[in-house]
Recover the amino acids of this structure.
């Protein structure tokens, strides 16, 4: 195997029972995570891939709730324990598979309704491996599905040292002087199995997930207010225990808690609009229909974290009516010339698998007593799941947001813009590639 996969497997093969009982020792982590699953996972009997699920603590609970769960892990001994524990619980898992989170090629695209990635991301030391694990999980997830990804936080090791082994700080300073900066705790190369880990800064998690084509719904600091000092709380039961779970789940949503928790849980979705746009781009290219993506979808394709509610396409006049004829079955509002108080264009609205697509040609905006062209003047290509998609420059989208008074969105875009291109556009210079 490439990377540090052998080291990971050796550690978990050496003591699978220890990983099973970890959730008994860390009841708050387990309870808050299950609360998040209850709020975000699709209803049973949805198909779930528990990727890196070890001995199956989450898989068995979810299977008992009626989910169709496939457990997948790098440790064969952990999977053997999962098989025994599932049998003892009278639970049937849909599959128990051995392999690496970076290679899910045995599973087709879009076959699962939800994917749990509850361990791999904090054991993969290479950032490319972490991204590949997320991309593979996203690939096997259906559009609109939910992905839950766990991270160990940057300062978790130091909290553990302070609470249990303060003398360990001497070893860390001597041997891992960059731990606070890079979060890497690699193998020391000895004969004993080691817990090797990447501890992520809270600011790393959302961009990593978005880099895999996912949208981040929310991030939770799982242990809430009891991280590092949960012993007494974890020993509770009954009403008082449930009250503490409620409190920790509530504060887990507060970004101020994220760096203070030992684990982060990123709740993500695979946006339907991306799959729809990729299919549409391939179809339009095959039919030689020129188009350009505008608005929020264009901004998101440039890597800016904005919500996308629909897909806006700009086409030449003849092409917009050809689009209307080609996709008449999806039409909600057929293409026609329409004029409002602020804008006028040849406009149509369509529904593709629940995603709204709006097309327009000859767009003009009102400025005082006259109408002026509001057509996009720039163009580039962005890769979307292996499909080149034509979009306007981010700089042009940014100026359009400023013109429309959407200053918060413009501020999000500005940090991603090329300064020279932005200034050239603002001055009315260098406007190539008009459709």
């Amino acid at each position: 195997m490439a990377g540090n996969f052998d080291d990971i497997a050796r550690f978990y093969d050496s003591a699978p029972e220890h990983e099973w009982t970890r959730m008994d020792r860390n009841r708050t982590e387990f309870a808050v995570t299950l609360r998040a699953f209850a709020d975000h996972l699709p209803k049973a009997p949805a198909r779930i891939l528990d990727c890196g699920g070890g001995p199956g603590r989450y898989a068995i609970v979810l299977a008992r709730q009626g989910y169709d769960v496939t457990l997948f892990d790098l440790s064969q001994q952990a999977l053997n324990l999962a098989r025994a524990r599932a049998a003892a619980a009278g639970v049937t898992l849909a599959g128990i598979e051995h392999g690496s989170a970076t290679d899910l090629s045995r599973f087709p695209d879009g076959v699962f309704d939800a994917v749990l990635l509850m361990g791999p991301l904090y054991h993969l030391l290479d950032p490319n491996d972490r991204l590949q694990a997320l991309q593979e999980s996203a690939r096997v997830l259906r559009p609109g599905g939910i992905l839950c990804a766990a991270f160990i936080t940057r300062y978790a090791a130091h909290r553990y040292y302070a609470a249990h082994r303060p003398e360990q700080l001497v070893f860390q300073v001597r041997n891992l002087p960059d731990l606070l900066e890079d979060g890497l705790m690699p193998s020391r190369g000895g004969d004993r199995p080691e817990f090797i880990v990447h501890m992520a800064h809270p600011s790393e998690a959302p961009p990593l997930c978005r880099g895999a084509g996912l949208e981040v719904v929310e991030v939770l600091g799982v242990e809430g207010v009891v991280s590092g000092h949960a012993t007494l709380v974890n020993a509770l039961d009954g009403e008082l225990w449930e009250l503490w779970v409620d409190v920790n789940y509530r504060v887990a949503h507060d970004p101020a808690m994220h760096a203070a928790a030992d684990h982060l849980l990123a709740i993500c979705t695979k946006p339907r609009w991306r799959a729809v746009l990729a299919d549409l781009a391939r179809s339009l290219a095959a039919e030689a229909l020129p188009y350009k993506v505008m608005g929020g979808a264009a901004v998101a394709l440039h890597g800016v974290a904005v919500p996308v509610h629909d897909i806006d396409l700009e086409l030449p006049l003849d092409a917009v009516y050809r689009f209307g004829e080609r996709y008449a079955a999806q039409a909600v509002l057929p293409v026609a010339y329409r004029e409002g108080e602020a804008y006028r264009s040849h406009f149509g609205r369509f529904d593709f698998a629940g995603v709204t697509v709006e097309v327009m040609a000859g767009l003009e905006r009102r400025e005082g007593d006259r109408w002026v062209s509001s057509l996009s003047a720039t163009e580039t290509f962005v890769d979307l799941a292996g499909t080149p998609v034509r979009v306007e420059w981010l700089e042009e989208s940014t100026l359009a947001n400023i013109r429309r008074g959407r200053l918060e969105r413009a501020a999000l875009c500005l940090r991603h813009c090329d300064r020279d291109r932005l200034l050239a556009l603002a001055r009315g210079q260098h406007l190539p590639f008009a459709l």
Remarks:
- Residues 12 and 382 are 40 Å apart (CA to CA).
- Confidence is low (pLDDT under 50) at residues 431-435.
